[in-house]
Design goal:
39% of the residues lie in helices and 14% in strands. It has 395 residues and is of the alpha/beta class.
Amino acid sequence: MQPLASRMKVMTGEGALSVYARAKELEREGRSIIHLELGEPDFHPAPSVNDALKRALDDGKDRYCAVAGVPALRDAIANYLHNTRNLKVSADNIVIAPGCKIALFMAMLALIDPGDEVLYPDPGFPGYPSITLGFGGIPVPFELSEGNRFQPDPDEIATKITPRTKILITNSPGNPSGTVYTDEVQRRLAELAVKHDLLVLSDEIYARIIYGGQYISLMNYPGMPERTLIIDGFSKSFAMTGWRLGYTVAPARIVPALQMLAVNSYTCVAEFSQYAAIEALKDRESATARMVGEFANRRQQFIRDLNRVPGFRCSLPEGAFYAWVNVAETGMSAEELCRIMLEEAGVAAIPGAAFGRAGSDFIRFSFASSTATLQEAVERILRVSAPWQGIAAAR
């Protein structure tokens, strides 16, 4: 029997989804599980968004449409990026995709040749190295260390750039740490990209979920518009996870390649959902601001409560909706702690090594659940913490 393609041996899955699968098994057995493993807001789209979807269906907008996306949606995204990130981009530079992951996948497929090196954050989204390997590229991690407040270190990145380096991936606010890159860091990253003629994939899926200050896209810096691809979507900022709507903002010379890949894969994104997305961008009910305000309240309470758990240490994230908890002082591995929490307490979370080697002493919790649910989760964890309480107290 013929073997599978060799790329399947080097690509990896996502820790969040594997933990989710085990958690669902336990639920089918009748167990009560608190799901803090998935990055999914417990909100739903504003009523006007659902109404727009229904109108689009009633109006017969269920046909094939433009490969790059409905022109009205591309115009709306260009306006949205101008209003929220002070970016001046043309609708012609925007390609709609069935989800942010597909947008990232297609961008990397368009750019990576075998042997190309791709710099990516560690800890970071597991898809970065996995997709790179799948296309024959060489993933090169740069560390986001706790001692550096999980900011990229431009000096470290500079030492890892070689003649084969083609792409720098950035993610601000970051998953899993919630770090928002500082202006100084982004300025230096931009200088490195220009100096070494690097393409930059700026993953901005959490750009609207920040807790203070004004978000600055890496595309804003000198020399960056012609080399930066923004990856974004509707899942996080508009609570539209199951709608599978993402997009890429790309330099003009790269857009035809993204369109060619769309033609050869998904053809186009569902027309009716694109019209609903236009309504989401208008945000008439200020749904995004209200959601982020609620996340901010949960952030304060949940981080405070997690720091009550013996051996847990966590700082306030600057963006996204994840608590990135250092558990080294428990004396137990993050994997074992996550096993105990899930199997004995019914709390699902992700061991940090799922996001890269630099995350081995950490656990990621999502606080995109209600305050009451988060409080119950911590109480459950405290009830099963006896195996590591004494170790933590002795440290």
